[in-house]
Amino acid sequence: MTQTQRLFIACPLPAALTEACVALQDQCMALVKRPRPLQPGDLHLTLRFLGPTPAALLPDLGAALQALAGQSGPFDLQSAALGGFPQPQAAHVLVWHMQLSHALQALYDRLQHSLQSLGTAPEARPYKPHVTLLRCPRQALPALPAAPLHFWRADRLSFYRSELSPAGSRYTRLSDAMLGETEAPAAQGGPHD
Known about the structure:
By secondary structure, the chain is α+β, with helices and mostly antiparallel strands. The protein has a single domain, classed as Alpha-Beta Complex (Cyclic Phosphodiesterase, Chain: A), CATH 3.90.1140. It has helices at 15-28, 58-70, 102-117; strands at residues 4-12, 36-37, 44-54, 75-85, 91-98, 130-139, 151-154, 156-163, 170-178. The strands form two sheets. A five-stranded antiparallel sheet has the order 2-6-5-4-7, covered by helices on one side. Strand 8 and strand 9 form a beta hairpin.
């Protein structure tokens, strides 16, 4: 095992939302130069990107995530518009924004506090919930199609490892913590492509 792992915390998507994301990817492929869509199993709502993290911190991070999930119940989310990061005039990522509900902001704030107690630096940027649909070379985005209104229920937090490669990032879900449950479920194994 390497001494550091590139980690992030996210909510996996339900099947219906994943299908809607794939449909939006299909609509946008011809609008963007050299698009690289994420695989359906890699689609997620990022809560916090941790970046290179000492492997020795994994048990403490897992315990903190489990405790946070036990204090937080499942919550409902609503989709918003398509957009680009860092900005539509010079985007290298096409995203589907999600509305920042009170429940999601409260969970994010508790996550930030929990991570800081473990020595992780706080995120300086305001949280903008989104699902990354595809990556591309930096470019000005054209007018994007209207995204459908979609409601969904987040019921778990997941730890992911991200490994960079010439073909793009490869994500492996390391563990899940069910929202509202205090027992730790079995760890996940294997890549989710």
